Structure formats: C-alpha cells, structure tokens
Amino acid sequence: EIVLTQSPGTLSLSPGERATLSCRASQSVSSSNLAWYQQKPGQAPRLLIYGASSRATGIPDRFSGSGSGTDFTLTISRLEPEDFAVYYCQQYGSSPGTFGQGTKLEIK
Amino acid sequence: QVQLQESAPGLVKPSGTLSLTCAVSGGSISSNNWWSWVRQPPGKGMEWIGEIYHRGNTNYNPSLKSRVTISVDKSKNQFSLKLSSVTAADTAIYYCVKIIGGYGYMDVWGKGTTVAVSS
C-alpha cells in the first residue's frame, strides 16, 4: 500500500500568515488522485481539495493544492482564525486508500 | 444535499462483533456513488475500512478483510458494517462516508460514532 508522510507534524503560525503543508507518497499517486481534509476537534473531516488541486464546493480560495507524482502541497495563503485545525492528505488512486498521519496547524 | 448518520452501539465486548448502520438522507443509496467506512482510533490518524456500491460490489482493506462485512439495504436507504473478533485495538470513532463514484474522493462524512471495545 502507499504510505503518505506529512510534514511538519505541527506548524505554529499567526493569523494572516501563509501556511505550507507537505504530503509525500512512498510511490507515485496515479492520476493525481490525492485529497486534503480539514478536521477540527470533535468534528468529522471536511473535504478541501480533490484531484490534488481542485477545491471542493464552498471552500475559500485561500486554500490551494498542488503537486503530482509523489510530492503534494496544501497552501493556505492567509490564515484565518477558523483555519487552525488538523489537516490530512489521502490518496485514492490505489487500493487500499490511505491517509497521512496529519499536520496540526496551531496558533502561534 | 446528502447527509449520513451512524447508529450508536457504544460498547462492544472483546471477541464480539461490532455492528453499525449508516442512514442516508437527502439522496438515494442507489446513485452512482460508493459508500464507505473509515475509522479513527483515539488521538490517531484515519484508516479506510472498506466500501460498497449499491449493486453489492465491495472492496475491503486487506488488513481487516478477514473480519469485515459491509452490506447495503436499498429498501431502507442505508448500509452497514460488521467487524468480528474485535479487540481493544478496534476502539475508535467510526465514520460513514460517501465516495464520489468514478472518482474516489470522500465528499460527505457522517458525524461519527464512538465504539469502545471493553469487557
């Protein structure tokens, strides 16, 4: 199965700053079948990005995804207070679908 | 807008069988989507358990395949998960999830239900 490694484990930033989250795959992710999810405490994950770079319905344009092959990035251009959460990447190109271990984005 | 709601069994005894149901509202389970279960142990990341299509086609995570059964009940617009021979390692929040047919990403999640395995 494809192992996804996210870095950093924790990212401490201030509102208004730019956040860059990384997701590296152990093998190439076919057809850029990679998604990003946001999870807040006590809530279910929410789809942010699919197909590596397409925003899901209702997701603000400060969220953007990029990458292909084995290296993917989620960028939040200007952090809002509600963006502080845990972010997971997931590949769905090969079965079983797998998730990264998450990056916690915390307020500095 | 499709919504998903997991049933809430709460506590399961070791070596027993965990049974969950996910009710689908706002849409038909017979639509061109896959219906899936994902779990998250306390304080940890997520694990895909398996998925089903309304025609009965299933895919399971190889790590759980010998213990998992996912089924669909079109008359009730719901799908179910059974996980046998549970241990404390199966303690987790269980989410039911809708997967976009033909694509594979998870666009709708239930709120999740906590299942604890304990005697």
Description of the molecule:
The complex is a heterodimer of chains A (108) and B (119). By secondary structure, chain A is mainly β. Helix content of chain A is 0%, strand content 49%. In chain A, the strands form two sheets. In chain A, strands 2, 4, 5, 6, 9, 10 and 11 form a seven-stranded mixed sheet that branches. In chain A, strands 1-3-8-7 form a four-stranded antiparallel sheet, with no helix packed on it. In chain A, a hairpin with a 3-residue loop joins β5 and β6. Chain A is globular. The model of chain A has no long low-confidence stretch (mean pLDDT 96). Chain B contains no helices and eleven strands. Chain B has strands spanning 3-6, 11-12, 18-25, 33-40, 47-53, 58-60, 68-73, 78-83, 92-100, 106-109, 113-117. The radius of gyration of chain B is 13 Å and the shape is globular. The N and C termini of chain B lie far apart (39 Å). The mean pLDDT of chain B is 94. Chain A binds chain B through residues 1, 33, 35, 37, 43-47, 50-51, 56, 88, 90, 92-93, 95-102, and chain B through 45-48, 59, 61-63, 95, 99-100, 103-107, 109-112.
